[in-house]
Write a structure and sequence with these properties.
37% of the residues lie in helices and 24% in strands. Strands 7-8-3-9-10 form a 5-stranded mixed beta sheet. The protein has a 5-stranded mixed beta sheet with strand order 13-12-14-11-15, with helices on one face. The N terminus and C terminus are likely disordered. Belongs to the DNA polymerase type-Y family. One of its GO terms (molecular function) is damaged DNA binding. Its main location: cytoplasm.
């Protein structure tokens, strides 16, 4: 068996390629609840949020709820408006973490090169697999079947030669999806892909692209790297690479969380403190939910503010002890915001991040299985 880095040979072009699988569980939290509680099966349920619609956001919605337009990170009030019979369930993060460990054990039968992105999704590099199966497609099939047989859950799989394309592939035919995008198909696939389908392009950026007449990968491909950087900043170089299906990032199984946060760009600039505080409450709820998911607390809270003239500032406050409760996160963010506001202010983006995590909060294994930074963009 060759050393890590030996890649799959493309017989037509004589180019070596990695074999990457992206596994994404289907409506993970909601599916675990439906599996463990028969009364919820076939029902529109939302994990997280508030049944009275008085606050909080949806962490995960079942596919029955998604038919009504309910989505993750949606405020409870809006979710109830879309689906009046929606059932809200309090999250059981210990249960989800236990199931996630079982899923990871299935992955480890085939490779040690596993990079979890969260409890419910991960990249696997199976360029060299433990069982010497040799086919990423067959390995993905076996993993999906094991998850179904052993855990009574479904997962979607994307298979390709790099992480970016594999992740997009896993999202194409959900739920229970299975999509392979081979080397010879990447060019046409990326050129035909709608800009909003590109992982990393959020709603605000997608809307900006469309106003510029950029609707597909082929449209983006017409622009030079410098033009993309001029229009979108440093991320323009990333767009230039991925629209060509180029992603040389390796699957990294030993990465530690450095920070965790969420941010939102607003379609209309915020002009009043009241509006800004309402948005901070929503963002704070998202951050709190994610801290709970990863069982993290941090000593430093950072506020990010971007004004309508594209000036950007960050302000932070550190504590002598780790914090992770919703009230402290939001109250601190509001205090930092109030200290940054000038008389004439128009804000287009707000973000909250926690960092400086406790060293002893997670086991070494847990630390190794976290990604470097977890953020929500656009």
């Amino acid at each position: 068996m060759a050393k890590q880095g030996r890649l799959e040979m493309d017989s037509e072009q004589h180019i070596t390629h990695r074999k990457i699988i992206h596994i994404d569980m289907d409506a993970f939290y909601a599916s675990v609840e439906q599996r463990d509680n028969p009364v919820y099966r076939g029902k529109a349920i939302a994990v997280g949020g508030s049944p009275e619609g008085r606050g909080g956001v949806v962490a995960t919605a079942s596919y029955e709820a998604r038919k009504f337009g309910v989505r993750s990170a949606m405020p409870s009030k809006k979710a109830l408006q879309l689906c009046p019979h929606l059932i809200f369930i309090r999250p059981r993060f210990d249960a989800y973490k236990a199931v996630s460990a079982q899923i990871r054990e299935i992955f480890s039968r085939y490779t040690d090169l596993i990079e979890p992105l969260s409890l419910d999704e991960a990249y696997l590099d199976v360029t060299e697999d433990k069982l010497q199966i040799g086919s990423a497609i067959e390995i993905a099939r076996q993993i999906k079947q094991a998850i179904r047989d052993e855990l009574q859950l479904t997962a979607s799989a994307g298979i390709s030669i790099n992480k970016f394309v594999a992740k997009i592939a896993s999202d194409l035919n959900k739920p229970d999806g299975f999509t392979f995008i081979g080397p010879s198909s990447i060019k046409n696939f990326m050129e035909g892909l709608a800009v909003e389908k590109f992982h990393g392009v959020g709603k605000v950026t997608a809307d900006k692209m469309k106003k510029m007449g950029l609707y597909t990968g082929a449209d983006l491909k017409r622009l030079s790297e410098q033009e993309l950087k001029n229009y979108f900043g440093k991320v323009g170089s990333f767009y230039y690479q991925i629209v060509r299906g180029i992603d040389n990032r390796a699957v990294q199984p030993h990465r530690e969380t450095k920070s965790l946060g969420a941010e939102d760009t607003f379609p209309v600039d915020l002009t009043t403190l009241e509006e800004m505080e309402v948005e901070l409450e929503k963002i704070g709820q998202t951050v709190y939910n994610r801290l709970q998911r990863y069982q993290l607390k941090g000593r430093t809270i950072t506020l990010k503010v971007k004004y309508n003239d594209f000036r950007q500032i960050t302000r932070n406050q550190s504590f002598p002890f780790p914090v992770g409760d919703y009230e402290t996160i939001v109250a601190t963010a509001k205090q930092l915001l109030a200290a940054t506001l000038a008389d004439d202010h128009k804000i287009r983006l707000l973000g909250i991040t926690l960092s400086n995590f406790q060293d002893n909060q997670m086991t070494d294994t847990d630390k190794a299985n976290q990604v470097t930074q977890l953020s929500l963009f656009d």
